[in-house]
Design brief:
The strands form four sheets. Strands 5-4-6-7-3-12-13-16 form an eight-stranded mixed sheet, with helices on both faces. A four-stranded mixed sheet has the order 10-11-14-15. Helix 1 runs antiparallel to helix 2. It has helices spanning 2-16, 20-32, 62-67, 88-98, 121-134, 159-162, 178-185, 189-199, 208-213, 221-227, 270-280; strands at residues 35-40, 43-48, 78-81, 106-109, 141-144, 170-173, 203-207, 217-218, 234-235, 247-250, 286-290, 294-299, 304-309, 312-317, 320-325, 329-331. The radius of gyration is 19 Å and the shape is globular. The model is unreliable at 51-72 (pLDDT under 50). With 336 residues, it is an alpha/beta fold. The protein is built from eleven helices and 16 strands. It has two domains: 1-37; 78-335, Rossmann fold (3-Layer(aba) Sandwich), CATH 3.40.50.
Length: 336
C-alpha cells in the first residue's frame, strides 16, 4: 500500500507539471494493482476496486486553505436536467440555483461534451441567449469556456483556457456526447475545478450528455442508438462518488419523440433495450431516471434531492422502482 501511495503522490506531481500522459500511465499501474483513484475536491485517494469509499480520510483542499479566516462556505447546489434547460421550466431551475448570488451573476458555459462537433458553440449560444433574457433581474454576465478536448490549445487541462471558471457563480455543461465528455473531462484540470468550485459555494448544472457522464457508469447513447452497438455501459466520471453516492443517470426518461412507432423512452433507447442495460450493471448500482422538462436538485447542506419541473424522477434500486414528483424530496441515503 505504501508503494501505491508513493505512486499516487508521483502522479499528482506530474499532473501539476501538466504531464498528463505520464500521470495517466501511473494511474493504469495503480488500477492494475487492484485499486481505483478517486479525484475529488479534497485531493486524490485510493480505494480498493469493487468497494465503496466509506468514511474516507478527509483531506484539506487548496480551496479550504484559501477560505480560512473568511468564514465557512456552504457548498453549492447541483442540478441534473432530464431536459429543458432552455425552456421556461429550465429558467426556473437556473434562477433557483443563482437566487442567492448578488447581481451581476457570472455564469460560465463549458461546451466540452460537444467539442467534437463542427460548431460546438451552437447549442451553448442558444442557451446563452435564453439565460440573458430569462435571468435579466440577475444581470447575467455569461462567459464561454473554450475547452473542447484534453489536448491542444483548447484543452480541458490548459489553465489559461479555464481561468475564468475561478471567478464565476454558476457553471453549466450539457449537450454533446456522453462518451466524449467522459473521455475529455476524466482526470482533467477542468473536472478538478468543477469539484473545487462546488466546495466554494458555486452552483453547477449538468444536462443531457454531461448529466449522463457524471454518473458512476455512463450510457453511450450515440454508440447504441445511432451506430447500432449492442447495449453496454462505460465507466462514467462518478462525480457524486465523492459523497459516497452510487448511481448512474438516465435523462429523457419519458421521451416520446418516436410517437407510437418507435419507443424513445429511457434516453431514446426504449424500454426493451433499457431492460437489457439494467442487467449489465453491478447489482448495487442505482439508476436515476429524470423526466423531460425536469431537474433533480442536489442540496449538499441538507443531504437531499428535490424534484423541480413538469415531470418526475424514477429511482431504480435493483428490481425496485420508486417515483418522485415535482416538489418531493428524498434523502441522499436513497442513492447509496
Amino acid at each position: 500500500m505504501d508503494d501505491l501511495q508513493k505512486l499516487l503522490e508521483q502522479r499528482e506531481k506530474l499532473r501539476k507539471e501538466k504531464k498528463f500522459e505520464q500521470a495517466d500511465q501511473i494511474r493504469k499501474i495503480i488500477e492494475d494493482g487492484g485499486y481505483e483513484i478517486i479525484d475529488d475536491a479534497f485531493g486524490p485517494r485510493l480505494i480498493k476496486k469493487n468497494s465503496a469509499p466509506t468514511n474516507p480520510i478527509r483531506r484539506t483542499s487548496p480551496t479550504e486553505i484559501r477560505l480560512r479566516g473568511v468564514g465557512k462556505k456552504t457548498m453549492g447546489k447541483v442540478a441534473l436536467f432530464g431536459s429543458g434547460e432552455m425552456s421556461p421550466t429550465g429558467r426556473r431551475v437556473h434562477e433557483y440555483l443563482i437566487k442567492n448570488f448578488a447581481p451581476p451573476v457570472k455564469i460560465a458555459l463549458l461546451p466540452t461534451p460537444a467539442g467534437f462537433e463542427d460548431n460546438p458553440r451552437a447549442w451553448y449560444q442558444k442557451l446563452q441567449k435564453t439565460l440573458e433574457v430569462g435571468l435579466q433581474p440577475f444581470q447575467p454576465q455569461i462567459i464561454y469556456i473554450n475547452a473542447l478536448r484534453n489536448t491542444g490549445e483548447k484543452s480541458t487541462n490548459e489553465e489559461t483556457v479555464l481561468k475564468e471558471l475561478n471567478y464565476v457563480n454558476y457553471i453549466h455543461t450539457g449537450a454533446g456526447s456522453p462518451s466524449y465528455a467522459v473521455w475529455h473531462l476524466k482526470n482533467s484540470l477542468a473536472y478538478q475545478i468543477l469539484c473545487d468550485r462546488l466546495s466554494e459555494g458555486v452552483a453547477l448544472s449538468f444536462a443531457s450528455a454531461a448529466a449522463i457522464a457524471m454518473g458512476k457508469f455512463s450510457l453511450p447513447v450515440y454508440e447504441i442508438y445511432k451506430v447500432g452497438h449492442d447495449p453496454f455501459w462505460q465507466e462514467g466520471l462518478n462525480f457524486f462518488g465523492q459523497w459516497d453516492l452510487n448511481f448512474s443517470v438516465i435523462p429523457h426518461w419519458n421521451n416520446k419523440e418516436g410517437g407510437t412507432e418507435i419507443d424513445t423512452s429511457y434516453c431514446y433507447l426504449g424500454k426493451k433495450r433499457f431492460s437489457l442495460l439494467k442487467k449489465l450493471l453491478p447489482e448495487r448500482t442505482n439508476i436515476l431516471c429524470i423526466a423531460e422538462q425536469t431537474a433533480c436538485i442536489f442540496d449538499f447542506a441538507n443531504q437531499q434531492v428535490e424534484i423541480m419541473g413538469n415531470g418526475g424522477a424514477c429511482l431504480i434500486k435493483k428490481d425496485q422502482e420508486e417515483i418522485f414528483y415535482t416538489g418531493q424530496k428524498f434523502n441522499f441515503n436513497y442513492l447509496k
